[in-house]
Write a structure and sequence with these properties.
328 residues, alpha/beta, 12 helices, nine-stranded mixed sheet, 17% strand
Length: 328
């Protein structure tokens, strides 16, 4: 008897780690991607983000999977990634992708969520790997109507017991040492999602910082790449690692880790905690904590992935992308 695939919608800002996560999920035998919803509130601008998402799906042989555009504006404030960084993301590091020949889906991200959840006979899982503007808009418009149709939302976002990464870009938001970008970029969107009745699992920086993008791993991965998706993933990692090494940065598998946590195996996550969290909304330019996740006894309980086995992740990531019969 064949195992039923997990039906997944990926809500993405189409950053470099999103590309890796999507490549991983396209190759995963237990995942059916129902569609991608793209936000222009995050690492990429909206139009190139949609284009790159469509072409990435074409590379993986899934060019007919819908890609639907969200919006360029967060629900509150005007937080934004640095323009030079976004330019590199928009160009997908000047790497070549096949052009997707299929018609562009005209539906908005909110309409796609509504129609897909309405039509699906099964519960749908959502992977949120960008700012939560699209999800916030959808939940705000349709309230609790679809709570029972969403199995869970897995969110790459937040910093619990570690320093945030918003201030890592020199000169941008230097007073915010506590927030993580996917929450910070649209704190109202995050608030709406967190206050919904939908079950949530967070994969915060605490876990992501345990899976570093290293030269040794990238070198070995590139050497063993056997599929078009694995070969393109190696090009992404080589380009990103080169940029960060020249700038003296460390880099991590943020979104691919969230994708792997969502997909399994169960022994990837070594510590999960249940927490009551809310997201700070107030903006203070002198001592900014907006976007920080803090404990609130009145908040609903969410799952938080606090620790992972880095070796298990590396093996699963490599083997799934190469379509090995045994992902472990």
């Amino acid at each position: 008897m064949n195992k039923q695939k997990k039906k997944v919608i990926v809500d993405t800002d189409m950053g470099w780690d999103d590309w890796l996560a999507i490549l991983f999920l396209m190759q995963h035998p237990d995942i059916e991607i129902l569609g991608l919803t793209v936000t222009g509130v995050g690492e990429s601008h909206l139009t190139p983000g949609v284009k790159n998402a469509r072409n990435l799906l074409e590379l993986g042989g899934k060019g007919t999977v819908p890609v639907c555009a969200g919006t360029n504006q967060p629900l509150i404030y005007s937080n934004v990634f640095p323009p030079d960084f976004r330019k590199k993301i928009d160009s997908i590091f000047n790497l070549n992708l096949p052009v997707n020949p299929h018609p562009l889906d005209p539906r908005s991200a909110v309409t796609f969520f509504h129609e897909t959840l309405s039509d699906s006979p099964d519960k749908v899982t959502i992977l949120s790997i960008g700012g939560m503007t699209n999800l916030g808009n959808f939940i705000r418009q349709y309230g609790h109507k679809f709570n029972s149709k969403i199995e869970r939302i897995f969110i790459m976002g937040g910093a619990i017991d570690v320093r945030g990464n918003v201030a890592d870009f020199e000169g941008y938001y230097p007073t915010n040492q506590t927030a993580e970008w996917n929450i910070f970029i649209d704190i109202l969107g995050a608030k709406i999602v967190m206050e919904s009745a939908i079950p949530l699992t967070f994969v915060p920086l605490d876990a992501a910082y345990q899976v570093e993008l290293t030269l040794d791993f990238v070198t070995e991965f590139a050497r063993s790449a056997k599929t078009p998706c694995a070969e393109f993933a190696s090009k992404i990692m080589i380009a990103k690692l080169g940029q960060d090494m020249s700038a003296g940065f460390q880099e991590y598998f943020y979104d691919p880790l969230a994708a792997a946590v969502m997909a399994g195996p169960v022994n990837l996550v070594t510590k999960t905690e249940t927490k009551k969290l809310k997201v700070v909304q107030e903006l203070n330019q002198e001592d900014d904590h907006s976007g920080q996740l803090i404990h609130d006894c009145c908040a609903k309980s969410v799952q938080v992935c606090m620790s992972v086995d880095s070796k298990v992740f590396q093996n699963v990531f490599k083997n799934i992308l190469n379509q090995e019969s045994n992902p472990l």
